[in-house]
Write a structure and sequence with these properties.
The chain crosses the membrane at residues 23-50. Keywords: Membrane, Transmembrane, Transmembrane helix. The chain is built from four helices and no strands. By secondary structure, it is mainly alpha-helical. α3 packs antiparallel against α4. The radius of gyration is 33 Å and the shape is rod-shaped.
Length: 95
């Protein structure tokens, strides 16, 4: 009987570091879950510091430049067809 108790005691003592590590991991996970909104906000703020958003005017200017480049490429690729080129130039003048 004492040998059985000694074996159970030795097994429990050998599992103690594993239980201790699991408790630490669960504790850190619980704190992270509790502070998740704060951590997400800090992460988003850091992303904005590294790569700020463009203003509406900047986005509109970039879109207009992209459209102009597209129309220019289409005009250059259709240089053999005069009516299509004239139509693309008219579209470019409207935008």
């Amino acid at each position: 009987m004492s040998t059985l108790l000694q074996t159970v005691g030795d097994t429990a003592l050998s599992l103690l570091p594993l239980v201790h590590s699991a408790a630490w991991v669960l504790g850190i996970a619980a704190v992270a879950l509790f502070f998740k909104p704060l951590l997400v906000g800090i992460f988003r703020a850091l992303v904005l510091v590294v790569k700020p958003r463009m203003s509406k005017d900047q986005m509109a200017a970039q879109r207009n430049m992209r459209n102009a480049r597209l129309l220019q490429r289409m005009t250059n690729s259709s240089s053999g067809n005069a009516s299509l080129t004239a139509e693309l130039r008219a579209m470019a003048a409207r935008s």
